[in-house]
Write a structure and sequence with these properties.
single chain, alpha+beta, four-stranded antiparallel β-sheet, 30 strands, globular
Length: about 500
């Protein structure tokens, strides 16, 4: 039986090629035979084959999709089933994807935490701004005094006019005022008189007199509440200064003698140490002194300690937070001049009993004030330079570096007899200077390293001492009046009308 398919193939090939090669005839015959076999197979097998092939194609496609590269972002965002609404431009620098409004977080989160979008149903949502953190200034900004604020006011007058007294705040809040030069007739001489100021009544009242008249002495509040009074000038020329010391007992209202120093001293310093002893340093006894000694309240005696690196009088001494004592400035030979006034400073270590040099001030200073600030630094203010010019500048000592640094443009005035005190807020340094017949005050703002005017007065007061009262006011007293006589007038200062 002839095969019509085979005949048509042979006829087609012969029409385009000519004679049919023998090997092609054989291949055609084999192909036709296999076709005949497939036609003889059951009908379900082709269907099964198609299903199997389709399944393989689907599986392969899924595998390729799962391991293939991520979809390429388009200029309008990421497309495809794997696109995530949290995708951002950071995943593809070339793209700027647009996030749907529903995926914007309702609140801002900290930068350190991964963002967790919270979908909302609103069509649009504006993110809530985080407030910018603020750092509190330390120290706080000081209030600016106004011209109408009555910062200076008179208080009761002392029983005796005094130039160069000491003023010591007792543990009961009253102020012990002792010694100085007083006027008798037309002559001023040292006095032994002492009195107490009561802040609650604003009045002075006499208390027991010292065993020795003193001027240029020191008064130190001890831990047990008594006051150590030491040294001072004996004669006006300071040629034979006092070795003696005495103790004031507030409970008894009396002075009693205690041990004497090894050498007479005036214009020295006395510093209460952390262990309750008192460091007496420098001073003069017709010549400048470099020696120092320690008073022990437990024994009532003085004992020698290491000497300073240079002789000093009219210098400052400040107890640091670490227990050491900063000694700065003064005069070396008892006279003011290019070779007398000092810029150098040194440290006393109670543990070793030795003085060692530290950084020097930028300005030579005699009769300056030194105040321990709340951050542990020491502010040295005013004084006189080697030309006897009253200074309006200040510099700050940093115990961590051992260096001084200038602070601000200086105090707004060049008043004489400047004194300074740290107010009860722990940050405000108040300096007060006397310009007869009046006084002017300035405050230091540590946040801006500057001094600012804080009031003036035309009251005929002097202000050799400034003593912080329990209620935050400052008692000012001591010095000369406008006529050059020891002044009995005392005043109170209240910063900006606030205690």
């Amino acid at each position: 039986m002839s095969d019509p398919v085979g005949e048509r193939l042979r006829s087609y090939y012969q029409s385009i090629q000519g004679d049919i090669p023998a090997d092609l005839t054989t291949r055609v015959d084999r192909t036709l035979d296999s076709t005949a076999i497939r036609r003889a197979r059951p009908a379900w097998r082709p269907a099964f084959g198609l299903l199997a092939a389709g399944a393989v194609v689907i599986i392969v496609a899924l595998v390729v999709h799962s391991i293939g590269p991520s979809p390429t972002p388009t200029p309008f965002g990421i497309t495809g089933p794997s696109a995530s609404p949290s995708a951002s431009a950071a995943e593809s620098p070339a793209a700027s994807p647009t996030i749907e409004p529903s995926t914007i977080p309702t609140t801002m989160v900290e930068a350190s935490a991964p963002p967790t979008p919270t979908p909302t149903t609103a069509p649009t949502q504006t993110p809530t701004e985080r407030p910018t953190p603020t750092v509190s200034a330390s120290p706080p900004m000081l209030p600016t005094p106004t011209a109408t604020t009555a910062q200076f006011s008179l208080t009761g007058s002392m029983t005796v006019g005094r130039d160069g007294p000491t003023a010591t705040r007792l543990k009961n809040g009253r102020i012990l005022v002792a010694g100085g030069k007083a006027r008798t007739g037309s002559v001023s001489s040292r006095t032994a008189a002492a009195e107490l100021y009561d802040p609650t009544t604003g009045k002075f009242s006499p208390t027991g007199s010292m065993t020795d008249a003193r001027w240029g002495h020191t008064a130190t509040l001890l831990n047990d509440g008594r006051v150590l009074v030491a040294g001072g000038a004996d004669f006006m020329d300071g040629a034979d200064n006092l070795k003696s010391a005495e103790l004031y007992d507030p409970a008894a209202g009396r002075f009693t003698p205690t041990g004497s120093m090894a050498v007479g001293r005036a214009d020295h310093t006395a510093t209460l140490l952390d262990d309750g002893r008192v460091l007496i340093a420098g001073g003069t006894n017709s010549i400048g002194l470099d020696s120092a000694e320690i008073y022990d309240p437990a024994t009532g005696k003085f004992s020698a300690t290491g000497s300073m690196t240079t002789a000093r009088q009219d210098h400052t001494a400040t107890l640091l937070a670490d227990g050491r004592v900063l000694i700065a400035g003064g005069t070396a030979n008892g006279v003011t001049g290019p070779f007398g006034t000092l810029a150098s400073a040194e440290l006393y270590d109670p543990g070793t009993g030795r003085f060692t040099a530290t950084g020097s001030m930028s300005t030579h200073r005699q009769g300056a004030t030194a105040t321990l600030m709340s951050d542990g630094s020491v502010m040295v203010t005013g004084g006189r330079d080697q030309d006897s010019t009253f200074l309006g500048s200040a510099e700050e000592y940093d115990p961590a570096t051992g260096n001084f640094a200038g602070r601000g443009a200086g105090i707004p005035d060049r008043a004489q007899a400047r004194t300074a005190v740290l107010l009860s807020d722990g940050f405000t340094l108040l300096t007060v200077g006397w310009n007869a017949p009046g006084a002017t005050a300035a405050t230091y703002d540590g946040g801006h390293y500057g001094f600012y005017t804080a009031g003036t007065t035309t009251l005929d007061i002097a202000c050799q001492t400034a003593t912080l009262l329990p209620d935050g006011r400052v008692l000012l007293l001591g010095g000369m009046d406008a006529d050059g006589r020891p002044n009995a007038t005392a005043a109170l200062y209240e910063l900006g009308g606030q205690s």
